[in-house]
Specification:
about 160 residues, Nucleoside Triphosphate Pyrophosphohydrolase, alpha+beta, five-stranded mixed sheet
């Protein structure tokens, strides 16, 4: 499969900060080794980025009570490693181009429920932002390092 000919998937991601400015991360059901990520997902046809972010956040975590602090300017991209191209997203994309949002969680932790209609995660936790690059799969590390610079505006 020629990876370079495949397009990037249009996606969104969300940084969720709690009252202590820790970041929400979850462990993927399909990759239960000790790798964690922030909620993210695809944009449906005709959907704007904000609506996609809210939908994905709810579908993955049941979270609704967030305040949007910032829509981060520009886009963040990652490419899939060769061994995953053709497997993930039915082989239609080589990676993802994402619009990211920084939010503050306003709800109670009892709102967080990973046992959703189509569960993607098996476990969640709050972590200090600086821990993010060490928790993510290697092919998303540069994206998370770039996001970390944007999160610092809100976490000091």
């Amino acid at each position: 499969m020629n990876k370079k000919k495949l397009p990037m998937r249009n996606g969104v991601g969300v940084v969720i900060l709690n009252s202590e400015n820790k970041v929400f991360v979850a462990k993927r059901k399909d990759n239960p080794i000790d790798k964690w990520q922030m909620p993210q997902g695809g944009v449906d046809a005709g959907e704007n980025y904000l609506a996609a972010m809210k939908r994905e956040l709810f579908e993955e975590t049941s979270i609704k009570n967030v305040k949007i602090l910032r829509e981060i300017e520009g886009f963040f991209e990652y490419e899939l490693p060769e061994n995953l191209v053709g497997i993930i997203w039915k082989g239609k994309f080589r990676g993802q181009k994402q619009k990211w949002f920084i939010t503050k969680f306003l709800g109670k932790e009892t709102e967080i429920n990973l046992n959703t209609k189509n569960p993607e995660f098996i476990e969640w936790k709050w972590v200090p932002p600086e821990k993010l690059p060490g928790l993510i799969v290697d092919f998303k590390k540069d994206l998370y390092l770039a996001l970390l610079k944007k999160i610092k505006d809100f976490t000091g």
